[in-house]
Design goal:
With about 775 residues, the protein is an alpha+beta fold. It contains 32 helices and eleven strands. The strands form three sheets. Strands 1, 2, 3, 4, 5, 6 and 7 form a seven-stranded mixed sheet that branches. The chain has a two-stranded antiparallel sheet with strand order 8-9. It is flat.
C-alpha cells in the first residue's frame, strides 16, 4: 500500500473522529440525532417506572445526605469525616442526671409490668418536668431540646423500661406537636403547644387502619366539607383506626383522613387528598376506651373510631390552606423523626444487654469457671459488644445530621431498620447467654420484657420488611442517585433538553464506575485514597471499593430491568443491605475519629468494620447469583461470582478479635463504662441490675484470691465456702481476705437466683387483678 493510501485511511479515521466529537459535543446536534431517539426508546419500552403523587411526595420528602455519596460510586470520605458529631451539653447532662435519673428510680420495669401502667406519681412527674414537651420550644413552655438531647433521654429511659420510651417517644416524635411546629398556624401553636408541653393534653396520632397499614396512603377515613348555617365551614369525619399509641387516654387526636369537597367550597377539586386535623377527644362521635395488648408491654396502644364527628375546618393543621397536604406533612416529619426515636430506644436496650451479659458472664460459673471464659459464650458476647458500639455510632451520626438541618429520609429509614434489627440480634444473644435466668420472668429478670417488646420496634413507623425491600433502595435509588430522578422527571415531561443534559453525564458516570469497580476489585481497594493514615485506613479503601461496585450494579440493574426493578424486591432488599452497611461502616469510622481514636475502642472498630464488610460481601453474592438480566445475569452468576468468592471484600471477624471484645465486656474499668455510657445503673443492690453490678465488681476484685486458694487446695473437692475456710486455716489468706471472699460468693450466689412465686401470687400476676390507670385510679380488669 502506497503512502497516499495510508494517508487516505488516516484522513478518513480523523474525519470520523471529528464528526463523532462534533456530534457529541454540539448539544443541538446530539439532541436531535442521538438523544431524541434514546428518549423515545425509553418512553416506548417504559424502562423507568412511573411515579404516583404519593410516591413523589415520599421521594421528595427530606434531603439527600451522605447516602448520595455511595450512589455516586466515589464517596468523599474527607467530607463524611467532617460531618457534625454532636456532644451532650452540660445543660442536657444535668437533665439526664436529675429528672431522667429520678424517673428511672421511681419505678422499675417489673413495677410497671405488674401494674400494667406507669404509677400515677410517675405520670405526674413526667408532666411536671416537661418530658411530654421536650421538643417543644421554650417560648411555648417546652424544653426546646435538640434531637441529640431527645435521643440521649430516650436512650437512658429505654435502659430502664421500654414503656417509658413508648410513652414519651410518641409525644415528641410523630404526633400533633411536631406537625404543629412545622405546619401549624400561629393561632394553633399558641392554643395547643403550651397545653401539650405541660401535659394538660395527652396527644395521639391516628394514621393506621385495618385496610391501610404499610400502604398508609390508601386510608379510607373520610372528611367531608360542608357549610354551616352561619356560613362557617366544617368537616364531617368518619374513621376507624388501630394501633394508636396513647389513643385510649388521649385528649387531643391528630387524625389523617381523605378530605372530600363535593360542593367545591374550598376550590375546584372534589378529592383534596390526605389531610391532617386536630380533634378534641371529647368531641361527640369520637369513640375511645378500648386497648390493644402489644406483646404484654404495658403502654397504651388502642383503636379509635369516629362517627359523624363535626369539627371546624380551621382545625386542619395549618388551616384550610393545608387541606390535602397531609401526606407531604407526614413524609417530611418521618424523613427526620424515624431516624431518632427508635435508634435511641434500641441503643439504650443494647447498652443494657451489654452491661447485663458482661456482668452475668463473669458472675455465673459452670465447671469451675465463669461462663464468659467459654468460647461458646465469647462469640455472642462479642456480637453484643460490637453491635452496641455500632448502634451508638449510628445514633450519634444521624442525630448530628438532623440537628444540623438535614432531613435525611433514606438515612433515617436505614437507621430505624438497622438499629431495630440489630437490637433484636443483641437481645436474642443476651437471652442465650442468660439461659434459664433469661426466661423466668420476675423482678430479677432484666431481659425477658425487652425480648417480648422488640417485635414492636420492628413493626411500627414502617415495618422492617417494607422498609428494606421498598424504601431504603426502592426510593433511595430515585431520590439519592445523582441522575435517576432528574432523568425520570425529564422523561415523564418529555423534556429533551433536560434529559440530554443529565443522560450523558450518567453514561460517563457508568463508564467511570465500571473502571473504578474493576480496578479496586483487582487491587483489593489499594488504588482508593483514604482520608486518614493508620489502622483504619484499609476500611476506607474497602468502602470505596464497595461503593464503586454498588453504583455500577445499581446502574446495570436499572438499564437491564427498567421499571421491573421496582418489583424485584429480593434484589432491591440486597441493594438496601449494601447501602445500609456502607452507611453503618461510615458512621463507625466517624465515631472513632470524632472520639479521638481511643486505642481501647480499636478492637470494636475492627470487629464492626469486618462484620459490615462481610455483610456487604454476602449481599453482593446474592445479587450476582440472582441478577435476572439475560446474558449479563449468566456472566455474573458464573465467572463474577466465582471471582468474588476467591477475592472477597470482607469476611467475618476472627475468634481472637471476638475474644478481646468479650474480655473487655467482662473487665471493670473505663473501657466497659464508655461502651455503656448514658444508661441507668442503680447503685441499690436490692435492684436487679444493682445486685448484678455488685456481684460483678466483687467477683473481679476477688478473682485472684479465689484462684490462689483453688491452686493451693487442688486435692480438695469442696465448695467455695469450704475452700475459703481451709485457706484461712492454712494461712493462705488473711481474715479480711476471707471475709471479702465470703461476701463475693454470697453476692454471686444471690445474683444468679431466679424469681419464683407462690401459687396464689402467680395466679394474681397472670390475671392482672388490679392495675393503675393513667389518671391514678385503680381498675379491675376482670
Amino acid at each position: 500500500m502506497d503512502t497516499f493510501s495510508h494517508l487516505s485511511i488516516w484522513i478518513g479515521i480523523g474525519v470520523v473522529l471529528l464528526l463523532a466529537i462534533v456530534l457529541f459535543t454540539v448539544p443541538f446536534l446530539r439532541r436531535s440525532l442521538i438523544t431524541s431517539w434514546i428518549l423515545k426508546a425509553i418512553q416506548s419500552l417504559k424502562l423507568l417506572p412511573t411515579i404516583s403523587n404519593t410516591e413523589q411526595a415520599a421521594i421528595e420528602a427530606g434531603t439527600v445526605w451522605v447516602e448520595g455519596e455511595f450512589f455516586s460510586g466515589h464517596p468523599n470520605f474527607q467530607r463524611l469525616n467532617h460531618e457534625s458529631y454532636p456532644q451532650v451539653t452540660p445543660e442536657i447532662q444535668a437533665f439526664l442526671d436529675g429528672p431522667v435519673e429520678q424517673v428511672c428510680q421511681m419505678a422499675s420495669d417489673w413495677d410497671i409490668y405488674s401494674h400494667q401502667d406507669l404509677p400515677p406519681e410517675l405520670w405526674q412527674y413526667l408532666k411536671q418536668e416537661r418530658f411530654l414537651g421536650m421538643m417543644i420550644p421554650k417560648e411555648y413552655g417546652g424544653l426546646g431540646f435538640s434531637y441529640l438531647a431527645f435521643s440521649a433521654v430516650m436512650t437512658k429511659l429505654a435502659s430502664r423500661s421500654f414503656t417509658h420510651t413508648a410513652t414519651v417517644g410518641v409525644t415528641n416524635s410523630l404526633g400533633p406537636a411536631k406537625l404543629l411546629l412545622h405546619y401549624g398556624t400561629p393561632a394553633q401553636k399558641a392554643e395547643y403547644l403550651p397545653r401539650l408541653a405541660r401535659g394538660e393534653d395527652i396527644p395521639c396520632f391516628a394514621l393506621t387502619e385495618p385496610q391501610a397499614g404499610s400502604d398508609a396512603a390508601s386510608i379510607t377515613s373520610e372528611g367531608v366539607v360542608f357549610e354551616g348555617e352561619s356560613g362557617k365551614l366544617y368537616l364531617r369525619l368518619n374513621w376507624k383506626k388501630r394501633y394508636i399509641t396513647l389513643g385510649a387516654i388521649a385528649t387531643l387526636i391528630g387524625l389523617a383522613f381523605r378530605l372530600k369537597d363535593p360542593d367545591h367550597l374550598l376550590g375546584k377539586e372534589t378529592d383534596l387528598g390526605i389531610t391532617c386535623a386536630l380533634i378534641a377527644a371529647n368531641t361527640p362521635g369520637v369513640v375511645l376506651g378500648q386497648r390493644h395488648d402489644p406483646m404484654g408491654v404495658p403502654f397504651y396502644n388502642s383503636p379509635t373510631e369516629g362517627h359523624d364527628v363535626v369539627i371546624a375546618a380551621d382545625q386542619i393543621i395549618g388551616g384550610v390552606e393545608q387541606a390535602g397536604q397531609g401526606w407531604k406533612m407526614l413524609m417530611q416529619s418521618l424523613a427526620a423523626g424515624r431516624g431518632i426515636s427508635f435508634p435511641a430506644t434500641c441503643t439504650g436496650v443494647a447498652k443494657l444487654v451489654t452491661r447485663v451479659t458482661g456482668n452475668y458472664a463473669r458472675v455465673r460459673r459452670q465447671f469451675g469457671l465463669p461462663i464468659g471464659r467459654f468460647e461458646g459464650i465469647e462469640e455472642p458476647l462479642a456480637r453484643i459488644g460490637g453491635l452496641t458500639y455500632l448502634m451508638d455510632a449510628i445514633r450519634l451520626y444521624t442525630c448530628g445530621a438532623v440537628d444540623a438541618g438535614e432531613q435525611p429520609a433514606v438515612v433515617s429509614a436505614i437507621a430505624k431498620y438497622m438499629t431495630t434489627e440489630l437490637s433484636r440480634q443483641i437481645v436474642n444473644d443476651g437471652m442465650d447467654i442468660l439461659g434459664g435466668a433469661g426466661i423466668c420472668r420476675g423482678p430479677r429478670n432484666l431481659l425477658a420484657n425487652i425480648y417480648t417488646a422488640i417485635p414492636i420496634t420492628i413493626t411500627v413507623e414502617g415495618a422492617n420488611i417494607l422498609t428494606r425491600s421498598m424504601i431504603i433502595f426502592g426510593q433511595g435509588v430515585i431520590r439519592s442517585h445523582p441522575y435517576v430522578y432528574q432523568e425520570t422527571k425529564a422523561i415523564h415531561q418529555s423534556d429533551l433538553v433536560a434529559f440530554d443534559a443529565v443522560f450523558w453525564k450518567h453514561v460517563y458516570s457508568i463508564l467511570i464506575n465500571g473502571f473504578r469497580a474493576v480496578g479496586l476489585n483487582l487491587s483489593r481497594g489499594y488504588f482508593a485514597r483514604s482520608p486518614i493514615q493508620g489502622a483504619t485506613a484499609r476500611y476506607y479503601r474497602k468502602l470505596a471499593w464497595a461503593s464503586a461496585t454498588f453504583a455500577l450494579m445499581t446502574d446495570l440493574s436499572i438499564l437491564g430491568l427498567g421499571s421491573r426493578l421496582k418489583r424485584q424486591e429480593n434484589l432491591t432488599g440486597r441493594f438496601a443491605d449494601i447501602l445500609s452497611w456502607l452507611y453503618l461502616g461510615t458512621a463507625t469510622l466517624r465515631r472513632y475519629e470524632a472520639e479521638g481514636r481511643q486505642s481501647a475502642d480499636l478492637p470494636f472498630v475492627h470487629w464492626v468494620m469486618q462484620y459490615a464488610l462481610s455483610q456487604i460481601q454476602q449481599a453482593f453474592s446474592g445479587i450476582f447469583q440472582n441478577l435476572p438480566i439475560p446474558v449479563l445475569g449468566a456472566i455474573f452468576r458464573l465467572p463474577v461470582s466465582l471471582w468474588w468468592r476467591i477475592n472477597p471484600i470482607g469476611t467475618l471477624p476472627d475468634d481472637d478479635l471476638s475474644r478481646q471484645i468479650a474480655q473487655r465486656m467482662q473487665t471493670p474499668g473505663p473501657d466497659r463504662d464508655r461502651l455503656t455510657t448514658g444508661i441507668f445503673i442503680p447503685t441499690d443492690a436490692n435492684q436487679a441490675l444493682g445486685r448484678l453490678e455488685q456481684a460483678f465488681l466483687l467477683s473481679a476484685q476477688t478473682e485472684s484470691l479465689l484462684k490462689t486458694i483453688k491452686q493451693a487446695n487442688q486435692a480438695i473437692a469442696a465448695n467455695s465456702e469450704s475452700l475459703i475456710t481451709a485457706a484461712l486455716a492454712s494461712s493462705i489468706i488473711q481474715a479480711d481476705e476471707a471475709e471479702l471472699l465470703k461476701k463475693s460468693e454470697a453476692a454471686r450466689s444471690d445474683a444468679i437466683q431466679v424469681d419464683a412465686f407462690a401459687l396464689n401470687e402467680f395466679s394474681a400476676l397472670l390475671n392482672g387483678n388490679m392495675i393503675y390507670c393513667g389518671t391514678g385510679t385503680s381498675q379491675n380488669l376482670r
